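HOLO CASE FILE
Compound: adenosine-5'-triphosphate
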Amino acid sequence: MLQAIALTRQFGRHTALNALHLEVGKGEVFCLLGPNGAGKTTTINCFLGFLAPSSGRVLVNGIDVQAHREEARRHIAYIPETVMLYPYLTGYENLEFFHALTGQAYTKSQLFHFLLDAGLQEAAIHRRVETYSKGMRQKVGIAIATAKNAKALLLDEPTSGLDPRASNEFSVLLQRFSSEGRAVLMATHDLYRAREVAGRIGIMKNGHLLTVMQAQEVDHYALEAIYMEHMNAAL
Ligand SMILES: Nc1ncnc2c1ncn2[C@@H]1O[C@H](COP(=O)(O)OP(=O)(O)OP(=O)(O)O)[C@@H](O)[C@H]1O
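Model generated. Tokens follow.
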């Protein structure tokens, strides 16, 4: 569903991504770990079509993002660290607004249920977003992605700043989202959540994808040890 093929991105003389190969299949959750500046956000921005590759390609559902940006974007949803919503609108009104942009036609009851299914409490749905916690905003983000019928979800450090319960709820939501056959690519610094939610985990450093592993095959301590080993090695 998401494919980076020899994806290279330079900023001036700095190579932020160096011939990255990455594939995230339908129904898969892939977590990208790596230190600040590793290239995680640059990868996501290339998939979103915000940044053009210097060389190589990015495909969404087989569509070349550079050549057909709008078409590719139809299949993806994006959840950044802080989901941008209109603070003076309610959660429901935000969903109604963003869903109207996609041209899909849902009834009021269907929209309401997207928010309920995303875990937003019923009492909060008609409250202004300015009163929402970060976790609640992310639930609205998931509802928007579901209503869009996005085939792939890109997330950039979505659990940073969430308390453990909110973070756990979010992991469950992502797993449900992927179990519906959608691809999930999540950049994170949270090794614990990565292991909990991912099918595969990749470690990036200096624009290189150094290793990819099955999350099931490592426990938290092993993942941390592998991560530290890569961080301490020269590259
Ligand atoms: N617009 C830009 N102009 C110049 N350099 C950039 C730009 N965007 C990113 N970079 C550089 O590219 C490299 C990769 O940055 P990127 O934001 O992708 O890393 P990251 O892994 O997401 O880091 P973090 O964990 O801090 O979010 C860094 O060296 C960064 O300074």
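CASE NOTES: The chain has eight helices and ten strands. Residues 11, 14, 16, 34, 36-42 surround adenosine-5'-triphosphate (CB under 6 Å).
CLOSED: yes
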